[in-house]
Design brief:
single chain; about 270 residues; alpha/beta; Cobalt-precorrin-4 Transmethylase, domain 1; Methyltransferase, Cobalt-precorrin-4 Transmethylase, Domain 2; 2 domains; five-stranded parallel β-sheet; five-stranded mixed β-sheet; globular; binds S-adenosyl-L-homocysteine
Amino acid sequence: MTIEEALRRLMPVVPELLPGHVWLAGAGPGDVGQLTLHAIAGLAQADVVLHDALVSEAVLALAKPEAELVPAGKRCGRPSSEQTTISAGLVAEARAGRRVLRLKGGDPFVFGRGGEEVLALAEAGIPFRVIPGMTAGLAGLAAAMIPATMRGINQAIIFATGHGAESQHASLNWEAMASLGQPIVLYMGARRIGTIARRLMAGGMPADLPAALILDATRAEQTVTVTDLEHIAGTVGEGDEESPALIVIGRIVTMRARITDLISQAKQEVLF
Ligand code: SAH
């Protein structure tokens, strides 16, 4: 079967985005290859696409030419307190009888406020569908050649947000998390990594525990820097505000060098 035939065969299983309905979809970490069929179908049918700043241009280019693209999200220059405005916007667009796609980076239910938006839609009686996406924590690790789980290394993996790490009320118990001895994948952690790393070390994580910074995962600009827990804050630097940054802490990070060393010894080509 050709790729075209395979895609044609899948067309009938793609649901229809009806007027007055909202699809809350994940767009993945940036690479168009990681969009789901349902997300593509949403882009192709929507009259209006309300998207996060993290949704890449290459993804938005798949929308109908006449579709209205509306930036809606914290990084789009709006404070987070406008979350209610975004939810109200979704309800208003649906009530106006438009086909609405709410598109978020990664997965809509992973650190994406998708839960709040779905609550607002349910409360307003708007029909909606939730379309999962490839979350950065998994796609980013794969793109950096770091297995999320590795037999002999870890039995669990922690996805945590660094957001709020310095606030006494919202802060996680980093010392307790350190004591679990399992790798931590940190979303939105670049700004607070200094505090977080200190607290993880206070909780017993060794200073020389491997750590990686993955910027712009799955995009052409992707960079991966491997260091250790003690030096990760210095690695993040100040210039990374613009690029989405994922921080991975734990022995799974050592797998990257093991894999890439073997590849370079064999002069083998690796395809992503
Ligand atoms: N819902 C998204 C996460 C939103 S929070 C998801 O499931 O992936 C935003 C954070 O996600 C960023 O601060 C960064 O830590 C991470 N992130 C999203 N896309 C990324 C990418 N392409 N590369 C690295 N990190 C990314």
